[in-house]
Write a structure and sequence with these properties.
With about 325 residues, this protein is an all-alpha fold. It folds into 2 domains: about 70 residues, no CATH class; about 250 residues, no CATH class. Helices cover about 65% and strands about 0% of the residues. Strands 1-2 form a two-stranded antiparallel sheet. The longest helix has about 45 residues. The radius of gyration is 26 Å and the shape is globular. About 20% of the residues are buried.
Amino acid sequence: MSGDTFHHVRDFPYFEVPAPLTSSHTYDSLESVPWYVTEALHLHAPKLEEVNAAMQGKILIPQPFAGKSLEQPGLILTKFMVLQLVAVVVVFWIATGLAKRVAGGRPVTGRWWNFWETIAIYLRDSVVRPTIGEGHHGHDSHEHHGHDHGHAAAAHAHPADQYLPFIWSCFFYVLICNLLGALPWLGSATGEINVTGALAVTVFGTVIAYGSKELGFAGFWKALCPHMDVPGALKPLLIPMIWCIELLGLFIKHGVLAVRLFANIMAGHTVIAVFLGFIAMPGIVDTGLFWIVTPSSILAQVGVGMLELFVAFLQAYIFSFLATLFISTAVHPH
């Protein structure tokens, strides 16, 4: 495991903490060691003392859904699964807290809630509404409701607001997942390609759903090919070719959405680990270089850590902005 450069950013069925924070748990025999423990510790045919030594500094996640063996593993709960549930709870708390405070048109008070309200309003006014626009029915809705509700209603009832719940959910969920990685001994679930892949699939399904709602299911897929004024003889050749290219581009765009988020989050944590790894390198520990390398590595880690806080917000913004752009393209075809 020591040769695994990316060990600290991988997903495991345990949390790693300083050894003094864990209890002196020991197994009495190899038979009492669950199979998923040896698998998680990457121990093959281990001795009992090796298992107990490897357990130091690790808090195992309870496995109520684990199977009986590696051949029948069942559902193994991992660190990133737990952290994603934490992110869901935090996002739910923020969303419900804001909803209660703005109910009835009341102003939001308190720095904590003003911070989240500012982000939500920025996404609405600077990302979703300008990017998606009013759509085909924007003018009609204003005409029908203008006399009934006045200018205030017209200002708030924007057609693009129907997409806001999804975009807000994307942003805040990705942001909280990113920020959890800044806390000691936790991690960023968005640094795992399977997590970002699932998020990209969710956006892909949402794009199809919104596009089909606006244009019809067949109309959405037909609209992938833009209208072209070409001679009739060329249409049978060009239109299928362009449609296939656009279809491939649709999959590629959502694939890049997953890779972009995963790569940026994983890269930041890897750089931090590299800087701190300099301290323990052979040839440095027992030399005078230790007192030069150690403070330099710590300062570099702090600097990269501050940059990672910015990246956490930036990548959440980019993910939600691209999701908005894809939705806009789906509901407003070429």
